[in-house]
Every structure is written in structure tokens, then in C-alpha cells.
Write a structure and sequence with these properties.
By secondary structure, the chain is of the alpha+beta class. It folds into two domains: 227 residues, 3-Layer(aba) Sandwich (Rossmann fold); 113 residues, RNA polymerase II/Efflux pump adaptor protein, barrel-sandwich hybrid domain (OB fold (Dihydrolipoamide Acetyltransferase, E2P), Beta Barrel). Helices cover 30% and strands 28% of the residues. The protein is built from twelve helices and 18 strands. Strands 6-7-8-3-9-10 form a six-stranded mixed beta sheet, with helices on both faces. Strands 13-17-14-15-16 form a five-stranded antiparallel beta sheet. Strand 1 and strand 2 form a beta hairpin. Helix 3 crosses helix 4, helix 3 runs parallel beside helix 5 and helix 4 crosses helix 5. It is elongated, with a radius of gyration of 24 Å. The structure holds adenosine-5'-triphosphate (ATP) and magnesium ion.
Length: 382
């Protein structure tokens, strides 16, 4: 149960795959958050269905999934804003299922920050301490310390309207950190920022988390964000967790076709198309950057898989080019190649050409074919 709710699935993968992701920390880490058979229904809507989860002390843990997959509902149940319909929630060894939000040692940072516009930055950060009647001097010191952590010294007398989006986001973070919660819950906190600022804040948030050593539970629908920041990721789909693992684990060894497609490009062959390549109808995935595209007459090595086809689509992306190849034996695969010496003209001229794809047999990952609801197939393959 250490690494997620599907031990049998992990076992079966472990037999097929070289181990890149099985290093277990010793001694046993303390569990900061535990969800046990948690479900949440709103009338007829099953928002969350039977989630089992253990989040370790000091971990940066992400809940990743498409819109409506139940991420926010899970977070709100951990915070205490929603009561689970079934199951139990534990924080640091205490059953908090029936406790009110203020009785739990957690704080939440919401996407819209919810800063008080009429208060200064310092007053916003001190607010939670004032409510708890912390003495003034202590309050001022702790707020200054929290603002230092988020690198906002010298901004304490500004109003929120006088800050950039990224600075406002950091005030919201300082306001949560000042309470020194055991667990910080963050619901798409970078969603309102533009791409460049979001990428800069991803790195900063991760640094702050490591500096303060808090447990972060981070909700996002952005796979790149989850891969960049997390120690471990739970991939959610339709109210369930499909896989829990490290970023490399869920990317390199997706357990289901949904995970393969949501965390990366959906390169799944199944049925006859799989049989033509591997000799077995078992569905498998192979990551686009692992595949070489060569002339059709090139021979493949003994430990390599190979398939011939035609380049249906070419997308030139600057640093690399993405090719969609229709296989002669059915199905299609996406290939990504770095543009080491290739210009956009050369890349685009490949469209329509007959090619052979070659990759190391060991890089195939067997996947379960589950429900693919939530995957935008076109978006995933172009
Ligand atoms: N208060 C509510 N009443 C009824 N249905 C709800 C309520 N809250 C959430 N839901 C439903 O539960 C499902 C999960 O919602 P949730 O907000 O947890 O998704 P999410 O993964 O956070 O999505 P997003 O990425 O869009 O924020 C959705 O189908 C949603 O419509
Ligand atoms: Mg949400």
C-alpha cells in the first residue's frame, strides 16, 4: 500500500519493466495525510469514488487530473470544507473525519488568493494570527518571517492592487505559511498567472516548500506543472486515482492508457496493431522521444521493435519536431525528434514519406485499457 491504491498493478508492472522508480525511503516515513476509502457524492453526482491515499511528511504531493476528476473535492475534504459520504481522513495519525476546518492543522491557498483589498500586505499576512489572538509583537515578527520566505521583504506596506499577479500569489502563500500548518493545501494556485511567471513561480514554490519542510498537497490539471514540482503524483480520472508514483514513474511506467495519454502523448497500440509489432494483442505504450524514425529499408536490431508507415502529420516546434506516423499494420504512433541539425523546411518535407520506426523493445509498457474519458485525443496527438 505504500505507493498507491493498486499494489497488484504495480507488481505486474514490476515484473515487466526495468526498475527506475522503486527506491523506497528508509526508515518508514511518517504519514501526514491518509485517505481511507473516501467517497463523496453530491446528490446523483459521484465526485470522488473510493480513494485510498497516503501522503508522507514533507512531501510535495500533487493531485493531477482533467477538469471534473474530483481534485478540488478531495482537497476540500482534507481541509474539512466538505464531509466525505464514505471513508475516513487522517492527519498525522489523528482521525479528523468529523472535525471542523479550524480544528485541523491545515491551511488552504486558493486559486483566486482571496486577499483583503483594503488591508496592506502585512495586515493580510497577520490576519490569521489576529483572529487567533496572537500578541502583536509575535504577530509582526512571524509575518515578517513569512514575507521573507516568499521573498517579499519591503512590500509589507503595499496594498494588493499595487502588486503583480505573482507577488499577490506569494502574499497568499505567506498568509498560509504564517500559521505554520503541518499541511498546506494548494488548489491551482498558479492558474491565474501567465506562462512565464507560472514557470518561475513553480520553481520558487518548490524551493520554498523544501526550505520550510512542509507537506504540500497541490492540485493541478497541468501535467508539466505536476512533473516539475512534485515528489509524487496521484493521477485522477472520473473521481478515482488511476496511479500514484514519482514524476518519472507515472511518465515512464504509466499503469493505464488514461495515464499514458494524460501525462504525455497517448502513444498506445492495442489489439491487431499491437500484435503486428510485438506478437501480442496486449495494449502497450511507448514514449514518442524513445522512437527513431529511419528509412524504410533500414534493418532493426534483435532487441528492437519496428513498424513501417507513412508520416501523416508534421508539427515543427522549434527545439523539436513532432511526427504523427500512420502504421501500415494499423494504429498510429507519435515520434518526437530533436532538431539538432534539422530546419523547419526539412522537417515539413517529411510529410507523406514512407518511414520505418525503431525502438528498444524494453521501452514498451503494458497498459490497462480503461476509460479514456477526459482525454482530448486530438490535443494529445498533434
Ligand atoms: N457542490 C457540488 N454540487 C454538485 N456537484 C459538485 C459539487 N462540487 C463538485 N461537483 C461535481 O463533482 C465533480 C468533481 O468536481 P471537482 O471540483 O472536484 O473537480 P476538479 O477535478 O477540481 O475539476 P477542475 O479542474 O475543473 O477544478 C464534478 O463533476 C463537479 O461538477
Ligand atoms: Mg478544481
Amino acid at each position: 500500500m505504500q505507493d498507491g491504491p493498486h499494489p497488484s498493478r504495480e507488481d505486474s508492472l514490476a515484473q515487466q519493466a526495468p526498475q527506475v522508480d522503486q527506491a523506497r525511503p528508509r526508515p518508514e516515513p511518517e504519514i501526514a495525510v491518509r485517505l481511507e476509502g473516501v467517497a463523496k457524492r453530491f446528490g446523483d453526482v459521484a465526485a470522488v469514488e473510493h480513494v485510498d491515499l497516503e501522503i508522507r511528511q514533507g512531501e510535495f504531493f500533487s493531485l493531477l487530473g482533467p477538469s471534473g476528476s474530483g481534485k478540488t473535492t478531495c482537497l476540500r475534504m482534507i481541509a474539512g470544507f466538505e464531509a466525505p459520504t464514505e471513508g475516513r481522513i487522517w492527519l498525522g495519525g489523528q482521525d479528523v473525519t468529523r472535525l471542523a476546518p479550524y480544528e485541523r492543522d491545515v491551511n488552504t491557498v486558493f486559486q483566486d488568493y482571496a486577499l483583503f483589498p483594503h488591508m496592506t500586505v502585512a495586515e493580510n499576512v497577520e490576519y490569521g494570527l489576529r483572529v487567533k489572538r496572537v500578541p502583536r509583537e509575535d504577530r509582526v515578527n512571524r509575518a515578517a518571517e513569512a514575507l521573507r520566505m516568499v521573498r517579499l521583504e519591503g512590500f509589507d506596506q503595499r496594498k494588493p492592487a499595487q502588486l503583480s499577479g505573482g507577488q499577490r500569489q506569494r502574499v497568499a502563500l505567506a498568509r498560509a505559511l504564517v500559521n505554520r500548518p503541518k499541511v498546506l493545501l494548494l488548489d491551482e494556485p498558479l492558474g491565474a498567472l501567465d506562462l512565464k511567471l507560472r514557470q518561475a513561480m513553480q520553481i520558487e514554490l518548490k524551493e520554498i516548500q523544501q526550505e520550510v519542510g512542509l507537506t504540500f498537497v497541490y492540485v493541478t490539471h497541468d501535467q508539466e506543472e505536476a512533473l516539475t514540482m512534485s515528489d509524487r503524483i496521484a493521477v485522477m480520472n472520473l473521481g478515482r486515482i488511476e496511479q500514484v508514483g514519482t514524476p518519472a514513474g507515472v511518465y515512464e511506467q504509466p499503469a493505464t492508457s488514461f495515464v499514458a495519454g494524460f501525462v504525455g502523448v497517448s502513444n498506445v497500440l492495442s489489439g491487431d496493431a499491437a500484435k503486428a509489432v510485438t506478437g501480442s494483442a496486449q495494449a502497450f505504450t511507448v514514449r514518442p522521444e524513445k522512437i527513431r524514425m529511419v528509412e524504410p529499408e533500414t534493418a532493426a536490431g534483435p532487441n528492437e521493435c519496428t513498424a513501417t508507415g507513412h508520416v501523416r502529420e508534421v508539427v515543427y516546434l522549434g527545439a523539436h519536431t513532432r511526427y504523427v506516423v500512420s502504421l501500415d499494420s494499423g494504429g498510429e504512433l507519435v515520434v518526437v525528434q530533436q532538431n539538432l541539425a534539422t530546419s523547419s523546411m526539412e522537417a515539413l518535407q517529411v510529410r507523406g514519406r514512407a518511414v520505418r520506426l525503431v525502438w528498444d523493445r524494453q521501452l514498451n509498457r503494458a497498459v490497462e485499457e480503461g476509460s479514456d474519458a477526459g482525454i482530448d485525443e486530438e490535443g494529445g496527438s498533434t
